[in-house]
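Quick illustration, no need to memorize.
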Amino acid sequence: MAAKAFQKIYTKVENITKATCMLRATGVGNEELATIDGRLAQVVRIMNDEVTLQVFGGTEGIPTDAEVIFLGKAPSLQVGDQLVGRFFNAYGEPIDGGPAVSGQEVEIGGPSVNPVRREQPSELIATGIAGIDLNNTLVTGQKIPFFADPDQPFNEVMAMVALRAKSDKIILGGMGMTNDDYLFFKNTFSNAGALDRIVSFINTTEDPSVERLLIPDMALTAAEYFSVVKGEKVLVLLTDMTNYADALAIVSNRMDQIPSKDSMPGSLYSDLAKIYEKAVQFPDGGSITIIAVTTLSGGDITHAVPDNTGYITEGQLYLRRDSNVGKVIIDPFRSLSRLKQLVIGKKTREDHPQVMNAAVRLFSDAAGAQTKMENGFDLTDYDERTLSFAADYSRELLAIDVNIDTEQMLDTAWGLFGKYFRPAEVNIKQQLVDKYWPKGAEH
């Protein structure tokens, strides 16, 4: 990037680590971009005249007399309708072979919306995945993570959500993706003919890991354009936030900051909150909803990344494999949407809350029966029926490959109730039983 006339050039780098460089400079702003030896960098710390830069491409080969030029602005994105259907890197540059995007240049990483300017979330986000829509219904303006082990098909689930969700725009932010994952998303969206409502920002494992720090802000800047300027309902999908946190740790450690729990930076909570708090419902109907994958190391929910995430977000969605049916399901016990009560039974059918509660209770009874069986105790007739119910419930409603609308989900649940239980065992209000209990089943 060429220097402008009269632009000051620094040529003395005092300290170089694997991810950062330190020099003395004045008149520099926090988060300002710079080039060092031709590589893009960003100011991450200023102490008096000591300026620390994180170098996105890595510092290998940078000499101590490298030219450093400060650009006078923070990272930015050209926003506009031309973003739709395109794939970009962490700098907002096209990686799909298409032309550069023209539009309004907007700095990324701006502040979240003032709480007094927000509406209480009240609109349903339907994903078509029964394990979410039936038991953990999502609401526009909500922020919620997927907790999953690294070997679970979380990217496939995110792609399903992108294709099925009833949203005007989908913004995908991929961090530390393999090339196979990138091509999977690209081919899936293209083959489904859904590119006309999807914008993707991708960082792969072949790209410098520090670049992952730009992806969420790029995705959310695009989301803010479509939600604020266009008044659209936008769903932001971020995968994988553990890779994002690892990149934070790399920069933090190279700056000799004292690490906090699990080698994460002490600022982890604030760094994550800065992203998740961009979820918002605007009074005029535009909204940003955030679903983000957080992979767990060995299923450890107490690790700093999921632990901090849980304090910020409004629930969580758990993926697990149900060995009884051989399918990956949305775990009804460990998943929770704290905002679902704002829409279930209001924006969905009247029986939704009662059906949801009854189904999860019966599934819990089946878990108890499974424990009895594993410990050699005799099973009652009710135990046997709950086990049969649980297998069908997992297969027909909790499995991630189930794609039906909410009314079909409710009707399916009623069908399972009638197949295995008497109305008194299901414990649902009589007026709802009279209205929805399947014809021909015991009443």
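The mean pLDDT is 90.
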